[in-house]
Amino acid sequence: MLIVFDIGNTTTGVGLFQGKKLLADWKIKSDREKTADEYGIMLKNLLEHGKFAVQKIKGAIISSVVPPLTPVFQSACEKFFRVRPLVVGPGIKTGIPILYENPAEVGSDRIVGACAAYEKYGGPCLVVDFGTATTFDAISASGEYLGGAIAPGLEISAEALYLRTARLPRIEVRKPKSAIGRTTVSSMQSGLFFGYVGLVRNIIAQISAELASRPTVVATGGLAGLVAAEIPEIAHCEPDLVLQGLRSIYEKNRAAEKVER
To answer: N or C: which end of the chain has fewer CB within 10 A?
Structure first.
């Protein structure tokens, strides 16, 4: 079995694969204060609760946008699973050329999602990842990572309203019953939700206009289910896109190692 980790700013996605089949997945909090032992015990408990044998894990791969947590998960994998994980970064074979001016600046999760989307849907395609930040990643018809856009996530926007105003409350982000709010909370929800739908649709339109042909738009991330249904340009919603991309990149690198030997 293969265990994969998508370490994000707010949560970490964990996936367990047998070949191409995703057997189970979990979301855990990305806590910079936790030690490798604490994460290792948590992961071991999740696996045992799902009746998965820890000793059957033969490989691991990590994508991380939280540098302090990367060595913590590496250490947890080595100590509790007896495997040395691959870490997505320079030197890792992804299967797509990165045309960013400085490839090292691109978040590894963005590259992994782009790989998965291109592998499944071909190009051109556009990945919209609704996470702590909302990212837009464009892939050409020939499979090149072109770049994209980064916007504040929905929850960051809601938190900014609460923190930077004297009288607006902290609210739950959800679709309101109508655009015309009749309370402060529903008015905030309207501005956040419908404003965000407009933001996403406009960025999709701008990026699509710069591509040679209309891209297949794929949504992923924790808030994709909330927003994607309101955006007709989104053709597919793939909650496990980055986990599947990690599996694919792991297989590419293991195959390359066998050829080199």
So the answer is: C
